[in-house]
Structures are given as C-alpha cells and as structure tokens.
Amino acid sequence: MTVTLLPYHQDERLPDASFPLSGLDVVAVTPDLPDGDVWQRVAALFEPVVAEVAGQIDGGSMPRVVSGDCLTAEAVLAGVQKAGVDASVVWFDAHGDVHTVDSSTSGYIGGMPLRQILGADTALLPDRLGLRTLPEDRAVLVDARDLDPAEAEFLASSRVRRCAVDDVDLPPGPLLLHIDVDVVDAAELPGLKFPVAGGPSREAVVASVRRIMATGRVAALDIACPWHPPEDGDDDVRARLLKDLLTA
C-alpha cells in the first residue's frame, strides 16, 4: 500500500511533523509552485496529483491520498476521472464545503471544494484540472453539522444527500471516499483548525469507513488533515487515526 502525501494547506507547505505516517510507504508530492494567485498555485500543486492518481488506478491500485485540506479532493476526483472511472462522492466533513466565491463571507477557499465539484466557479480550479462536474444526486455529505447560512440554503434546495456516519446512504457506482478528519468530535481529536463539537467518535468514523471500503466500490481514498502542528501527545492520536483510516 502506497500513500500519496501532499504536505500542503492550500499553497502553504506544512512541516513533516503534521503528517504522522511512519511505517507506511509514503510518496510525497512537492512540486515547485509558480508566482501568481492562490488558484494558479494550487492548480500547479494539484496537477501532479491528478497524474499520480490516474497512474495508480491504471496500474491496478487504489490511490490513498493525504493532505492538509479538502481542496485536494478536486485533484483526486480529476485523477479518478482521467483514469476512466465515473465516480460518485462520499464526503465526510463537519462542514459543508459548499460555498462559492460569492457566498463565502470569509473568502476561505477550503470551504468551497465540494461546491466546485458540483459545478460552481469551475474556471478557478476544476477546469484547470480537467475535472468534470458531478451531478448533485451523486454526492453524499456525511455528518456536516457546522453550516453557514448560505451553505444551509444551498443544501436545502439541492439534491445532495445528507446522513450520519452510522447510516451512510451510498450513491451509485464507484466512489471517491473523502474524509476530513474534523468530522470527528473535536473533544476526541486535538489541535483541529476548525473544531466542531457534537460529532461522532473516532471509532464510529473508522467503523463507517470500513463498512464503505468493504463494499469494494471505493476507487480512491482522500484524507484531509486540517490541524495545527502537533503538541505533546497529539501525534499518538493522529497517527492511530490515520493508520486506521488508511488500512480500513
């Protein structure tokens, strides 16, 4: 099993200590980034991820990608599509990630990837990656419990399905399984950048992922780790969670 590591949060290079992956076969993607705005830079960052994911699928492997934020899922899905696999999306996240540039009050681009996958603001990143728009009814959002008003309004009128980790209603066909680790209750996972209380336990999330993996339908696994650099004791919890998810 090879883990593809993109050690970045957006276009910011993160310290190696942010990703406790010792004992695993890790291939890091660290391209030189051009000058330009953040969208140009993340597009350049993600292009080799698209190629790596497509190449692994063509070679008969299931890609496992770890990075510092959810934007990477756009590159992973583009790579899955490039390999000729028409995948639906299962998106574990405490947040909706369905903002557009216009709806976001903070401008945080990490809150936009699922909406871009569904067809919003495609010129910013999806078009540059060759990512084809996914129909809303082929996306499932799992345990999103911290939604901004604009996100709640969009989801209420969309065909995106929502469910809890213990009752995931899978969409049809092959799957991109995306897991933002902040789906875990903040009390159980220290140092999250965007902690949200009231979520499932680590064990419940891992059990849900195992059930989905057992279907044999997962074409690629993408794990986002939006957490701060570790403090004393953080590594053990994080390493155990990542190992459990990657080997589920």
From TrEMBL:
One of its GO terms (molecular function) is manganese ion binding. The keyword Manganese applies. Keywords: Hydrolase, Manganese, Metal-binding. It comes from the Bacteria. The keyword Electron transport does not apply. InterPro entries: Ureohydrolase, Ureohydrolase_dom_sf. GO terms for cellular component: cytosol. SUPFAM superfamilies: Arginase/deacetylase (SSF52768). Its EC number is 3.5.3.1. Belongs to the arginase family. This is Arginase. The lineage of its organism: Bacteria, Bacillati, Actinomycetota, Actinomycetes, Streptosporangiales.
